[in-house]
Amino acid sequence: MSVLEGCRVLLVEDESLVAMLAEDMLLDLGCEVVVAMRLDKALAYARTVMFDLAVLDVNLGATSSYPVADLLSTRGIPFLFATGYGTAGLEADYRGVPVMQKPYQRGQMAELLCHLLTCTTIPDKPAAAGALPCLCLTGLKPVGPAQFRAD
Amino acid sequence: MPTRQSFKSSASASATLPTLRRGSELFETERRLNAVLNNASVAIFLMDDRQHCVYMNRAAELLTGFGLDEVVARDCPLHDIVHHTYPDGRPFPLADCAIDRAFPENNQEKGEEVFVHKDGRFYPVGFTASPIRDDTTKIIGTIIEVRDISEEKAAAERQRLLTNELNHRVKNTLATVQSIAAQTFRGQTDPAVRQVFDARIAALSNAHNVLTDANWESAGLRSVIDRALAPHALAEPDAERFRLTGPDTRLHPKVAVTLSMALHELMTNASKYGALSVPTGRVTLTWTVAHDDSGAEHLGLIWTESGGPSVSEPTRKGFGSRLIERQLPMEFDGSATITYAPTGVVCQIDIPLTALGWHGQDVVAGRSAE
């Protein structure tokens, strides 16, 4: 059984069709998923609901999910960014956050989420604002489904 | 020849300037005006009633490559010095010049032209030409402001190339996805499933067509609806099958794409199981654009099927109802319901319209299909 089984995941993704795909992947991995497609909803969830993990699409139409990332950091909830641009597309303050390259892939999603749950560099207590949830992944190794098996 | 007072030739006019009564009000005014004119980044030309240039500022000298002395010495209309040839090499007669029309036609004239530099190269300019009047309001000359618009032209061209490239890539990527699916699932998937997939990709592609028509800034609601229904409507001999009523408006690109997909799913469902599956069935699509109490604009859209086979609630909800009833309201903070009435499917969608900077200027009267 995967460590992701039963995990509560916040999924922030603003495109209807893409959100359906990512939600299905997370459900297939055994997660309980809460979907937010707009920044205001995502902030409300991140403020009030407890999650084990979060997957944040960086670009939300005209805005971005960085404010959600800040909230999650202060609550000590590990998260990853999903973007078509890769790490280079992130604002400098967030370069340390694990990035999942779009299009969404189940293997990559499973590996990164498992890592976020088990990584020892992630502080147990809520981090100060702007702190990074995971420092060990950054640029250290290529991300591919071969290294971990989530299932 | 006109009897009106011409400007003095520049040589004699400027010769007196340094000797004007120093310290006098006139001298101070002159100094201030010269500072303004010679530090302005826009080229300024003062023309007399013969279209000869009697003054040009520093920016005008830099722009044209000619000094004021040279231009005055040529003793001919400025047009013949900086604007004498079309970019294709044909001579450009003064009489055809839009800039010089500002004088005889007595109106402010704005436009774009292509000038010829002293070194022979052509450069695009934007101009504003205004008449100058004497005390008796007779027109005695023209003041022309000119600026080099090469960079704007180049930027617009780059933008056009990028937009074309984007259009091309989006269509190509969708075609590539379609091909990969075809190769991957060859012989392994029910052809009917493949057909559904291809139709959805085509709907997505069509939605993007509407966006490319307006440089990805927005899409016309009416064209979104027309294109989404086209695959069925075009194959339909009976024009009465669809009744479309509502005003046109501009939609944010995200709304356009998701709405296109929603309409595609409704139409596909109707032609498989609903009103469009039998010759007597009809689809009525009615929409309104209205403001709610808080002033926000809403698109209200009602899809009503009638005359089809008796409808019952499906046992399993598929892609279409998930997209419409769940994703669409989440994406736009709106609402959507599908009712499986025995007389036909009814779908009600409410979408708050995302403000486009210029919304309202572009709302046109909707043409009704009735």
Percent helix of chain A: 25-40%
Task: Tell me the radius of gyration of chain A.
Answer: 14 Å
Q: Describe the main β-sheet of chain B briefly.
A: 5 strands, antiparallel
User: What number of structural domains do the residues of chain A give?
Assistant: 1
The protein's oligomeric status is: heterodimer
Count of separate structural domains of chain B: 2
Helices of chain B, by number, come to: 10
- Label the structural class of chain B: alpha+beta
User: Roughly what is the average pLDDT of chain A, rounded to an integer?
Assistant: 82
N-C termini distance of chain B? 64 Å
Q: What fold name goes in the CATH topology slot of the largest domain in chain B?
A: Heat Shock Protein 90
Order of helices and strands of chain B: HHEEHHHEEEHHEHEEHEEHEE
Give the name of the CATH superfamily of the largest domain in chain B: Histidine kinase-like ATPase, C-terminal domain
| Biggest sheet record of chain A | 5 strands, parallel
Total number of beta strands of chain B: 12
What is the top-level CATH class of the largest domain in chain B?
Alpha Beta
Order of helices and strands of chain A: EHEHEEEHEEH
Strand order of the largest sheet of chain B: 2-1-5-4-3
